[in-house]
């Protein structure tokens, strides 16, 4: 019976040792697998960090592009408004010039008609006035026959008409000079406006070209960022997959460690049982020798007596 028990314990120990070695081998493989999974996860996470940095840098540049685009659009709108205002001013000046030129032609026509009445030589207004005053004085102070008086009246009337025409002519000439001066001033003003409009138009076209380039660069950058985000997310998902496998493998490692600990305890218990069984076997053999001594009537020590009691060879 004891032989069978001892054999079973020996068999259990061998089985436990074999199982323990299998578990340790499996643990080493799982630990190596976990290290490999963690290395791949960390490598991929590092790639994610690098891509995230590149995305952040490109987004900062994109923000600068968008800010500059907003500035350009605002500046373009301001220039359009300025050009519109300048165009209104130019149109008003052109209308005014048209009115002044029409008035100038009208006054020149009047001057031409007056000159035809006055004659080729334009007399002095002062001389005419002096002559007229002299004739009127002579007419009023001298006594003259009716025929001569008639001649004086005709001369006075003619001289008066000429003086009136000369005065009208001179007044028109002054008006014409003022109109021409005003026209020249308006032409200069219109030229300044046109120059300013051209300047604003050139700025507008320059900004339009810059805006087109910036929008193209912005769109290209957006596409690059979208591609990088897609690439980063793909790698992140892959890294998450390795991380999940790493967690699962760690769980398996923990279970293996727990099983190894359990089997190690069982092995230790089995080994302890074998030691106890071998000790008991040794003690039983000694007990048999003591029992023979007892049967022979020899004196026993207290320890020998206890040994016989332990194996139920004698009753206390």
List keywords for this structure.
316 residues; Helix Hairpins; 93% helix; 0% strand
Task: Please provide a written account of the structure.
With 316 residues, the chain is mostly helical. It has one domain: Helix Hairpins (Orthogonal Bundle), CATH 1.10.287. It has 4 helices and no strands. It has helices at residues 2-118, 125-141, 146-295, 302-310. Helix 1 (2-118) packs antiparallel against helix 3 (146-295). The two termini are 25 Å apart. The model has no long low-confidence stretch (mean pLDDT 90).
Brief characterization of the structure:
This protein is mainly α. The protein has a single domain, classed as Helix Hairpins, CATH 1.10.287.
């Amino acid at each position: 019976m004891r032989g069978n028990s001892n054999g079973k314990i020996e068999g259990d120990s061998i089985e436990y040792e074999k199982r323990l070695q299998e578990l340790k081998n499996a643990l080493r493989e799982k630990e190596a697998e976990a290290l490999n999974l963690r290395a791949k996860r960390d490598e991929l996470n590092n790639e994610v960090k690098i891509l995230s940095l590149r995305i952040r840098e490109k987004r900062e540049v994109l923000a600068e592009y968008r800010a500059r685009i907003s500035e350009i659009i605002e500046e373009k709108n301001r220039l359009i408004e300025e050009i519109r205002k300048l165009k209104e001013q130019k149109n008003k000046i052109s209308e005014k010039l048209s009115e002044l030129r029409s008035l100038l032609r009208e006054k020149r026509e009047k001057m031409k008609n007056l000159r035809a009445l006055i004659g080729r030589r334009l007399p002095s207004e002062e001389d005419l006035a002096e002559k007229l005053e002299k004739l009127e004085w002579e007419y009023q102070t001298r006594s003259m026959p009716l025929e001569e008086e008639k001649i004086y009246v005709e001369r006075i009337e003619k001289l008066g008409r000429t003086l009136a025409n000369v005065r009208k002519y001179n007044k028109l000439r002054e008006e014409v000079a003022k109109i021409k001066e005003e026209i020249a001033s308006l032409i200069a003003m219109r030229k300044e406006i046109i120059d300013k409009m051209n300047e604003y138009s050139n700025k507008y076209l320059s900004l339009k070209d810059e805006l087109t380039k910036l929008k193209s660069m912005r769109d290209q950058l957006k596409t690059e960022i979208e591609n990088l985000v897609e690439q980063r997310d793909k790698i992140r998902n892959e890294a998450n997959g390795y991380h999940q496998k790493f967690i699962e493998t760690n769980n398996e490692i923990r279970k293996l460690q727990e099983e190894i600990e359990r089997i190690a305890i069982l092995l230790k218990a089995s080994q302890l049982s074998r030691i106890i069984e071998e000790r008991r076997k040794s003690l039983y053999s000694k007990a048999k020798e003591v029992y023979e001594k007892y049967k022979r009537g020899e004196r026993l020590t207290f320890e020998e007596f206890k040994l016989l009691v332990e194996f139920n060879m004698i009753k206390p």
